[in-house]
């Protein structure tokens, strides 16, 4: 797939069949994660937790729904895999690294025909819940900074018309 096609067709997918991500698909998506730019090359400041355990996914989903005061919702949308990105860096660089890693994985997901969605809300909710955080078994000094859902979906990827309001405000200084 051409890069410009993946860039155009990538979208946040919020409906999943629940079918598992295949190991070879995951391997290619992780390779894309490792290809991300990382501030000052501090690769050891990042950690990935790949979660397919249904009980834990349900607990993260329920925790987020309750945290945001909407117990009837499913903030993980029934996806079969959540990859939690954790950083040991406080501040903007840790967040920027996380976003770069997640964006690379989301573009790789397009090529795999898998749905993906950047998940900050449920990640922040999880970071506030000690009991849940322990279940991630993170190394000392790491905290979750963002996550990505991955999974089979019935939603097709197709050419997207990018709306005019997506054009960020800008100025130019020549
Ligand atoms: C930093 C960040 C955090 C996000 N967190 C969530 C989230 O918690 N839940 C969710 O459903 N979508 C989340 N999104 C997806 C955005 O809502 C989505 O990218 C945006 O509406 C544009 O739609 P598109 O991705 O389909 O182009 C997040 C995106 C980014 C970049």
Write the layout of secondary structure elements.
Layout (H helix, E strand, L loop, with lengths): L2 H7 L13 H12 L11 E6 L2 H14 L13 E7 L4 H21 L2 E5 L1 H7 L2 H5 L8 E9 L23
Bound molecules: flavin mononucleotide.
Flavin mononucleotide binds next to β3.
Number of helices: 6
Helix content: 25-40%
* Unreliable residue runs: none
Strand order of the largest sheet: 1-2-4-3
Domain module tally? 1
* Unique bound compounds: flavin mononucleotide
User: What is the mean predicted local confidence, pLDDT?
Assistant: 98
CATH architecture: 3-Layer(aba) Sandwich
CATH homologous superfamily heading:
NADH Oxidase
**End-to-end gap:** 36 Å
| H/E element order | HHEHEHEHHE
Which CATH class applies here?
Alpha Beta
Q: What is the CATH topology?
A: NADH Oxidase
Key words describing this protein structure:
174 residues, alpha+beta, NADH Oxidase, 4-stranded antiparallel sheet, 4 strands, binds flavin mononucleotide
Short description:
The chain is α+β, with helices and mostly antiparallel strands. The chain contains six helices and four strands.
């Amino acid at each position: 797939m051409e890069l410009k096609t993946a860039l155009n067709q990538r979208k946040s997918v919020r409906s999943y069949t629940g079918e598992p991500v295949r190991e070879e698909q995951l391997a290619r998506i992780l390779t894309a994660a490792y290809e991300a730019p990382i501030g000052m090359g501090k690769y050891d400041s990042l950690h990935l937790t790949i979660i397919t355990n249904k009980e834990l996914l349900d607990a993260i989903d329920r925790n987020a729904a309750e945290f945001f005061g909407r117990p009837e919702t499913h903030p993980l949308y029934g996806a079969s895999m959540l990859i939690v990105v954790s950083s040991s860096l406080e501040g903007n660089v840790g967040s920027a690294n996380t976003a770069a890693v997640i964006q690379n994985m989301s573009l790789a997901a397009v090529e795999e025909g898998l749905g993906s969605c950047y998940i900050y809300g449920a990640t922040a909710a999880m970071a506030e819940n000690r009991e849940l955080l322990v279940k991630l078994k993170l190394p000392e000094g790491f905290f979750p900074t963002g996550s990505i859902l991955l999974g089979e979906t019935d939603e097709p990827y197709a050419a997207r018309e990018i709306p005019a309001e997506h054009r960020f405000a800008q100025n130019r200084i020549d």
